[in-house]
Amino acid sequence: MKRGKMIYEGKAKKVYETDDPDLYIQEFKDDATAFDATKRGTIAGKGVVNNKISSSLFTLLEKKGIPTHFVKLLSEREMLVKRLEIIKAEVTIRNIVAGGMAKMLGLEEGIVLKEPVLEYHFKEDKLHDPLINEYHLRALGYATAGELDYVRDASFKINSILKEFFNGVGIDLVDFKLEFGRHKGKVLLGDEISPDTCRFWEKGTGRKLDKDRFRRDLGNIEEAYQEMLSRIVR
Ligand code: 5GP
User: Fold this and answer.
1) Domain coordinates of the chain in residue numbers?
2) How many angstroms does the Cα of residue 19 sit away from the middle of ligand 1?
3) pTM of the predicted protein model
4) Which CATH class is domain 3-82?
5) Minimal-distance CA residue to ligand 1 atom 11
């Protein structure tokens, strides 16, 4: 598949057209940003790790019946994906209190939730991805009731599948962010699933193996990403 014009450059990825109007190439960069891109840096090898981890997790989810935009791995940093019209909401699922939820509600990190929490955030960096709910999304025409029913159901299923998988490799899946989009009338899981978009805590020690090492200047960032790769892709 030949790479065509670059049509989008985000904080961590570039997207290219291909010969096929239904397919794009998603390229993973080593660039890292946090706090709405006010903090910037590079994590050596991150793009390669995130491409491999995302491919592997999308493949797992597809096997379990969740349709995703993933088609195939093309190279160390590139995957072939289905073209999506992205829904302007980030879906966050939380199993353990951390990050934004701890801050918003004045809670300690580490409280195990009695059931998973689903949040929607409006995808707009300059507004700091504000928390919204399904009423906002429907009333403003960003998604239909049917699409949101699907997104909610699929997100909880994805959480169950990933929680079980990560339990098996000694990791607590604390929280993660998903993005969905429309492809030929169907809603598919898009974007990536990686240490950039999830919180991973090592069971027993609580060691953070995700982007919080970069956000909070905890050091050993590259090692944490490599460690997650070796646990996920065996
Ligand atoms: P929080 O709302 O606590 O900051 O984030 C919850 C989870 O979603 C974390 O695992 C975090 O990595 C992910 N997440 C939320 N928003 C974003 C975002 O804009 N970019 C990335 N890469 N991850 C996000």
Assistant:
1) 3-82, 85-220
2) 33
3) 0.97
4) alpha beta
5) 197
